[in-house]
Each structure stands twice: as C-alpha cells, then as structure tokens.
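Each letter names a residue; structure tokens follow underneath. Both lines appear below:
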Amino acid sequence: MGNFKDMGLCRDRELCGGCSYQGVAYEEQLANKYGEVRALMEKKGMDTARLLDIEPAPERYAYRNKMEYTFGDMEKDGETTLGMHRKKHFMSIVTVDECQLVHEDFNLILRGVLDFVRERGYRHYHKKRHTGLMRNLVIRRGVRTNEILINIVTTSEEGFDEDAFVDMIRRLPLEHEVVGVLRTINDRLSDAVYCDELRVLEGRDYYREEILGLEFRVNAFAFFQTNVDAVEKLYSYALGLIDDFENKKAFDLYCGTGTISQVLARKASEVIGVDIVESAIEGAKAAAELNGIDNCRFIAGDCFEVLKSIEDRPEVIVVDPPRVGMSTDAMDKIISYGVDRIVYISCNPKTLVENLYYMQYYGYETVSVKPFDNFPGTKHVECCSLLARTSR
C-alpha cells in the first residue's frame, strides 16, 4: 500500500472515478468547498456575513462505512476486475484494493473476493449481453461496533460455490468481526443492485451501529449515513441550534432512519418523522423500538402530501431534504406553520441556497450557514443553516 496519509500517492487516482480531489491538499479542499457555498450565496445576493467557517472532517481517511463495488473488466473481454467505474469510461471497472477512503479490511475483502472469482473462472456480468454470474460486492461496516456485513451479488446462473465463499471470508485476516455473509440474487437488466432473493450464508442480515447514544440495526439494503463520526458532529451542531424543544411537538422532515427524530424525542413531547423512502421509515420505526422511544411517529410519503393530510402543528421543525432540495409546495406548507426557528440540513449547497432565497421572501431570514466537510477527497459538501421568522 502507498503512503496512507498522502492522497497524492493513491495508486488509482488517474483511473478511478470515485474521488475528484485526489492529490489536492486538504486545506485547499476546504477552501474550495467553502468558496462554492460563498459563491452560491453571492450569486443570489445573500449576506455572506452569515456564512460561518467550514467544519473539517474528523478523519480524512478510512471514513466510509459502505462501499458498493462492481465486477467487470478494464479492457473489452479482459481479465475480471472488481471496483469502481473508470473516469469517463463507464463500461470499464478499476480494481481499487488500495483505496484510502475505506478501512483496510475493505481492501482485503475486495482482493480476497476477486482472487476467489478469478481462481474459479466465474464470469462477470456483461451489461450489454446480459450474461455472466458476478455482479457486485457490497461491504458495510459498524464503525462503533467493529462489525462488518459482506454481501456478494450474483445472477441466478448456476455454479457459485456458497460454502467455499464463506470459507474464504472466514480465513481473511480482518480486524473487524464478520457478523454476516450474504448472497443477493439479481437478474434485473439495470446496473443498480436489486434484490430478487436474499440468502444468509452465515450469521445475520444486519450489522449494529451507534450514533448519538442510539443503537441501529442496519440491514443489507437500508439507507444509512456514510460517515458516522462526521454526521454525529453535524447532527450535534444542528440540534444545538434549537434553543428549547422540551415538551414541544417537533417535525423531522426528510428524516431518513430517524436519528434526529429520536434525539429530539428525548425532550420533545412528540416527534413526527416523514420520509418518502418506505424502507427508511421502517428502519426508523425499528430503531425507535430498539431504543425504547415511544413518542416518535414515522410516516412514509411525499413531504407535502403528508403534511397536507395531518392536522398536527409543530413548534419545532428540522429538515434534511435530498439533493433536489424542497419543493415550493413543501416550503409553503412549512412556512405556514409559523414556527420561530427552522433548522435546515443540506447535502447540496446549490438547492440549499435556492430554498433559503425563496424562504426569505416569505418571512424567514437566514441567521447562519455552516458548511461541513463530511466527505474528504470528494467535492461533496454538507451544510447546516438556521432560519428565523421575521414576520407573522
């Protein structure tokens, strides 16, 4: 392995399409991300004095707790590879067994699985011919629990030796405990990982994780935050922006697996979490039950449609929408509640600024915007903003 602390020495930086800031000094990465948010605010004529310093990541390396690798080849009909899509060559796959953004166990598993597949002559799935056995390898890690879940994704084509695969995994010299080895059967034409059938080859179908004192059971296909330490820092900051939510009704909109909902529930009288992804809502319900929290209500559906259908009125609102931001219908409904403070967590500064610009014309000023670097080595930047009501 190259010098682990120097992203400039990443072996695959010229080929791998997974990262865009390989070789860029970390201070420059932070400056670029801060500058992106500032430029977006300036373009909308917003007060950049409200923009706070960017929060660096707790760790620059080995922070990702999930990777989804693809089987393929670098050259047409060449030797099987396993890893990430090549830059500007979507059909080519780069073997990335020296990746610096994952724990070394991920690299060891990737190499072990690739050697296993090559030794047995298993063919990778061909996206155009729709033939072949091997499709994906998905690895998920419990950062706080030292657990790893391994999911090999194949077609239903005959020949895969499940017992030998489990035995190979058992023999890998890993730091983590492998708590589950899974096989997913996927015969769909799409390149995405779908589950036509899930087989538990050994152990269980989930790993455990802890965030902000809450326990989660994360299964093979559940949505979960990719950088646990960084998101804990972000969520702690966001919750600190709410002056007082004791005995108040709170809405956690676009709530995902309900981490913020459950933290709010420690003081709030009731929390309603809303998300359009049904599996995320099921995960939130399961986590609340696991943590003994009974004053959270989770509803699956489009944010605006759900808010339109319920009579509850919040006193506290937290929003954490997907990259597309919030629709005008959703924003209008949120504004209509007239709460004093709204906390807005965003994974896309462009749509964040557009939403903040819209809401300032309807009675909510932007008090602060703080960028967070949760994904070093990439161009992604998270933000947390506080909005305050200026008119009734």
